[in-house]
Structure formats: C-alpha cells, structure tokens
C-alpha cells in the first residue's frame, strides 16, 4: 500500500550547509519543514572541507569578495547574517576554533562538529529529514509544491532549492538545481568551475616538470590580483593564488604571475652594484626555489655574472620575472573545482528572502545561486547567510 502523502510548511531540497541552516532557522520559528537529500548523510561537503577541519567562515567577509552578475546581490543576506553571528553559534556549541591565515576560521577539532551543530539546531518536532532517497518528480499546482521521493509524496506551499552546484560530482553533486530552476522558468547564468587548478599546454608543458614546487606570488587576471602561494602541478598551476584567480579567468585570457612581489623593478641592476661577481642564477635563487629558478632562467635565456650583464638586460629580466604570462588552456573542471561559479540568476530572486519573484513559494539558496565567494570560508558564509534569509521567510 502506498504511503500517505505528508504536508509541510516548506520542503527543502539538499542538506548541505545552506539547506541545514535554512531548516534550523525555519524549524526554530515553529515551521513544519521536510529536508530531503539523496545522499545517505547530510553535509558531506562540510565534512571534507578545510582538510577535514572546515574553514567555516572568514572574518573579512564583505560583498566585494563574491562574484555574481549582480555584485550587489549578496549584500542584504550577508549583512543580516554575519561571520560574527556564525561564530557566536559555534561558540554556543562549545566548538573550539582558530584563525589560520587571512581571516580564515577553522575548527580545532573536526568538520563533523559543524554538521552535528547544524543538526542539533534543527528542532526534532519541526524538522523531518530524509536521506538516501532519490527525488523522482516535482510539480506545482493550486499554490502547492508536490515532491515525490523514494516512493513518498510530500506537499508544501514553499520549496527551497539548496542542492548546490555540480562541482565534485563523485560526492553526489549534480546540476539538479539548474534543471529544477529551468523547469519553473528561471534563468541560469552559465555554470563554470571556480576555485579550480588551471592546466597548461603547448610550450608551457615545460613547467609541468616543476610539479610540487611552490612559491609566494601575486597572480593577476585583468584588474584582479591575489597575493598567496602558487603551486606547480603535473597538469599546470594550483595553490591558493591560482585557485582564487581561476574564478576570474576566462578561456583565452592570460594569467600574470609576479614571482618576486616584494622586489623593486630594478632589483637586479641594484644587486649588480653590490655584488657584481654574483651569478644571475644565484641572485634569483636567493628568492625562489632552485628548480623554479632554473626553469625561469632557461626561458629568459640569460646567464653569467651580474657584472657582465647590462642594466638594461637585468631590468628586462626582472620585469619578466614580475610579469610572467601563462596562457592556461583550461581548468581541471568540475571534478576538481571547489565551487561552481554561475548558477540560478540573481535577477530571478529576491536578495532579501531568496524567493523567486515570478514563482511564489520557490526559493534558491547557497551555491545553486549565481553567487561565488573567494577561497577561505566565504562560500560557507554565503551558504549560512542565504540559508538564514530563506529560513526566516518560508
Ligand atoms: P552543498 O553542495 O554543500 O549541498 C547540496 C546538497 O544537495 C548535498 O548534500 C547533495 O547531496 C544534495 N543534492 C544534490 N543533488 C541532489 C538531488 N538531485 N536530490 C537530492 N539532493 C541533492 N567552502 C568554504 O567556505 N570553506 C571551506 O573550507 C571549503 N572547503 C571545500 C572543500 C572542498 C573539497 C569542496 C568541494 C568545497 C569546499 N568549500 C568550502 C565550498 C563549500 O563546500 C560549498 O560552497 C558549500 O558546501 C555550498 O553549500 P550548499 O549547501 O549550497 O551546497
């Protein structure tokens, strides 16, 4: 015999950071919520995040650290649920944390503490959870959404899309949010892998031999620059500076690396005055790893003692080291992307409560939406803030 349909105030699809926060906030308002995820447990990306310690927010959170077609969109939700609000929640649950670098906050213990905290925040009498059952159909009529999942049927006047983006498909990530949004007539900003390693081809495959070598650099694409570490890989470039710049990079663009961001443009000709017998290789190697130095020197095609080289040549070499242009031929794709840029267009949803203007009762939150944060806890802060905004409204 078929199960009887259940009736709720809201159905939330996806029990990641955004969906869990939304369920907790709505449940605490006494709303009857059904939270459905096809994975066998909630918050799988939280569990693997930050190397298992979850970089759960960034104290430097501000709207200019997010990419979106509408750069103002994230302001409202981020200002109404801040990093300080999430830290207060973490503190209330007695979870110890530390700042690693650049405002990035991590659990001292394990990411599991964040998932357990969010589950504990969902009042049992208000929030029903279903894991491990596939959603097979969704429809809308007479002001109610109907969701079929694992042989069950549920109805609610509000439906929240919180199923994230397609990055890391092997963890159960899908493009489900986009299919569903399209079904209800919402526009999608072309999704693309972000916070993702870049690949090098052609002549630049030479750099692949440096796999494992890293250096503190400034990586620049257009007007955007990040000063962090870059890492050479067997496919191309990675490390925080590259992951950050990858979100801004488009096919056909170059990425400029300043390998010596602390040095003046005439540092080599100045060094020549002090140490004319010093070799160019040793001068560069004083600042960069040996293998990297050797590869760069080979490409610059200049060698010998500084005293035997003209200032013009030295300044030109210094300029190349500070403006090294790579032409990535692609990225490592959604399989390796920490997040997805693009998604459900912000033009379709209210920045106040995340509801789709044209489709009453339909909400979209978290990574499914065209809002993408920098590396360093910004994406979770968006998940919490957008989940909170919708949780207050449903
Ligand atoms: P999220 O993807 O977390 O959740 C979506 C949920 O929907 C999942 O539980 C999924 O199973 C479910 N789902 C998908 N399709 C479905 C379907 N068809 N039916 C039912 N359920 C479905 N960010 C950060 O700020 N700090 C960090 O330390 C890290 N670290 C990190 C490491 C790695 C390896 C990755 C891949 C990503 C990060 N991130 C991060 C990014 C961060 O994980 C991401 O931005 C948030 O998890 C997004 O939260 P959402 O809830 O929107 O989606």
From TrEMBL:
It comes from the Bacteria. Residues 192-339 form the RsdA/BaiN/AoA(So)-like insert domain. Its cofactor is FAD. Pfam families: HI0933_like (PF03486), HI0933_like_1st (PF22780). Residues 9-392 form the RsdA/BaiN/AoA(So)-like Rossmann fold-like domain. The keyword Flavoprotein applies. The keyword Flavoprotein applies. Keywords: FAD, Flavoprotein. PANTHER family: OS12G0638800 PROTEIN. NCBIfam families: aminoacetone oxidase family FAD-binding enzyme. This is NAD(P)/FAD-dependent oxidoreductase. It comes from Parasphingorhabdus flavimaris.
